[in-house]
Automatic annotation (TrEMBL):
This is Uncharacterized protein. InterPro entries: Retrotransposon-Effector_Assoc.
Length: 204
């Protein structure tokens, strides 16, 4: 990136200026830390639906080889590779060779709550949306995680994905497997009737 146009129209060209513009832009999107957030209302949480014993146990049992392989297979072949250049397709193709090492690392994370620093590195890169990209809004950010990191996340999400229906209302689309936003579109009947009337007029 040789230069970047700021919101006020000025152009920055030095690495330090470009870095500052990027930090300011994404800091604004993320918002600021609030040190006065209210804590969790424990009585209110306990008053609502909770996971049963079997569900809680299923979330904390030892990670199996099958879970790890399923997590790897759930990562798309064309996902962005990490900074080491190895994508999920490489791990799938060489699974017989790297299998034991990957399993040891993944299990070590769940048992000891530790991850080797080199595998806990995420690189965020910017890809221009078009050839004439000038401002930061003309770029899309891509996050490149190591595949071991992705496998661990996939194991967690696969486990968590089995239980939210017990504690999340069925009329909520987020975090519920198989739910889509268009399943819960609410359209006032008056507006619906008016729209149908107009369509009927067009086709008569």
């Amino acid at each position: 990136m040789k230069g970047l146009q700021k919101e006020d129209g000025t152009i920055v060209t030095t690495l330090a200026e470009i870095e500052m513009e990027l930090l300011d832009f994404y800091s604004t999107l993320m918002g600021r830390a609030n040190e006065n957030l209210d804590g969790i209302d424990v009585p209110a949480m306990r008053d609502k639906a909770q996971l049963n014993f079997d569900q809680r146990h299923a979330l904390i049992v030892h990670v199996t080889d099958q879970e790890i392989l399923k997590a790897l297979k759930g990562i798309g072949d064309l996902k962005a590779p990490s900074m080491d250049g190895f994508g999920s397709k490489f791990f799938k193709a060489s699974w017989n060779i790297v299998r034991e090492d990957v399993i040891v690392v993944v299990r070590d994370f769940f048992v000891n709550d530790m991850m080797y620093k080199a595998m806990n590195i995420i690189v965020v890169t910017l890809i221009p949306k078009s050839d004439g990209a000038k401002t930061i809004r003309d770029y899309i950010s891509i996050t490149c995680c190591t595949n071991v990191y992705k496998i661990i996340l996939k194991v967690l999400t696969n486990r968590l994905g089995k239980v939210p229906c017990s504690i999340v209302s069925q009329n909520q689309t987020a975090f519920v497997q198989g739910q889509h936003i268009h399943n819960h579109i609410s359209w006032p009947m008056s507006l619906l009737k008016d729209t149908l009337g107009k369509l009927e007029h067009l086709y008569v």
